[in-house]
Specification:
alpha/beta; globular; 12 helices; six-stranded mixed beta sheet; Endonuclease, Chain A; 434 Repressor (Amino-terminal Domain)
Amino acid sequence: MELTGPVDDNDDVENAADLFRVIGRQVRLLRERAGLTQRELGEQVGYSEELIRSLERGRRTPQPEFLDAADERLGAGGLLRAAKEDVARAKARARVKHPTWFRNYAKLEADAVELSFFSSLTVPGLLQTEEYARTTFMARQPLLDEATIEQRVTARLARQEILTRWPSPMVSAVIDESVLRRAVGGYQVRQGQLKHLKHLSHLRSTTIQVLPMACEDHAALEGPFILLAPRGRPQLAYVEVQSVNRLITDTEEVRILAARYGSIRGQTLSPHESLALIEQLLGEA
């Protein structure tokens, strides 16, 4: 019997989510059978413990390279490799649900070859853990309902696939030290976020630098912003604060923000020093 009526986009999203949850459960069972922790499996396949946790929960799209590596490491005998085509089809059919006002930026981000973040309030969304992201959405006022929170967490995690795809964009992030010290979501969430940043700092395409609190002034005291260079298009900027968001295309405005970013980077700790600070914060009780 042929389906002649319209296909609901929600069905595609739910079908993809169901598939990712099934694969996640398979990975968890195979990992436990192999006697490995999430951290140990992550170390063996080049993923962070947080990423493995999210994959096992079905929160992230299992990438082909992960399925290949996990299949080999866990002795799955081709079970996980065989899911690659199903994942690709499900991903193509599903549409990630971003808020309407955010969709233009999300499309440009997905096609970017270079991304630069200055964050003075929270960790950039592209670098957040699942728990950290959920906390930021739960704290919103007016309050968001549970379904919307879960939808937005899933959408945010889905965006992060660009960090591990090939070729990946060149990503640089300048994060204010106060952001790292603030226990958003509590101590355990903060620790998980710091561990995730430590893992990301080892990616060849990602540079994380900390703007120290000892810095008395800098060029972006007006607030956070993002610079992005979509493939084959001029550099753009994006600003979002207090539910006000703006995609900036004016050449002169973008030039000013790019100059500010360059100035800020001159005041940050080096990537090596920034990693040392993150490790120091991780060791604090």
